[in-house]
């Protein structure tokens, strides 16, 4: 089932009004051997965020998951998540909202401005500092050690939603613009940009430069909670396949996964 989506990307679109989780549905389709499908929903009743967190996904959002079977080494898979963050940021900017990326894949709004106003305790992302969260990304995959089998990139964008109904620290496109967005057009822009950024190995080479251009994390003091402990220092770069490079008192570290918090300088 689908609706006319006006999409200039190599995906068939499965549109659902209400669904448990678009990622779950995309995984189901992967199990059926499908590929190149985007599942898009208006509302999710059982959506998931990173690190097994709950993701609040009421009616009015852009909740979508893209299933592909890219012919790339598994080591490059993180680039797809970063590509989705770039695509989401570009779609937001297209809709007139100045979004930026917090490593690895949170899309935030109002970073600098919020930091300047230290009295407003509400102006915080879920980790406590710097910007309000507009969108998040959850990637799931299966494959061999050297080759990706299937890859599901799930993107949750607070589109036309009253932020009062979202967890503290969240914002929405409609709140930022003062008017609702055309969600179909927004989703189409996002999917088209994602398709472009991930079209080939050569295209993937462009993901890190694009990510750097849209990052709010680089050049800032950060604290990253990793499986091996806390890494604190200045974020200086992002390196293949998506690691954050942090200058700490003990030297330069590369962080591959973790929760990143922007600290005040
Ligand atoms: C995060 O924790 O920041 C990631 C949130 C990802 C939510 C999206 S909404 C569409 C897709 N379906 C899910 O169940 N989760 C992702």
UniProtKB/TrEMBL annotation:
The keyword Cell membrane is annotated on this UniProt entry: no
Coiled coil: none
Source organism superkingdom: Archaea
Transmembrane segments: none
BPL/LPL catalytic domain mapped to chain residues: 1-202
Gene Ontology annotations for the cellular component aspect, listed alphabetically: cytoplasm
GO process annotations (BP): regulation of DNA-templated transcription
Any one Gene Ontology molecular-function term assigned to this protein's record: biotin--[biotin carboxyl-carrier protein] ligase activity
Keywords carried by this UniProt record: ATP-binding, Ligase, Nucleotide-binding
Statement: the UniProt record of this protein carries the keyword Transferase: no
Protein name, UniProt field: Biotin--acetyl-CoA-carboxylase ligase
Lineage: Archaea, Methanobacteriati, Methanobacteriota, Stenosarchaea group, Halobacteria
Residues represented out of the complete protein: 66 to 330 of 332
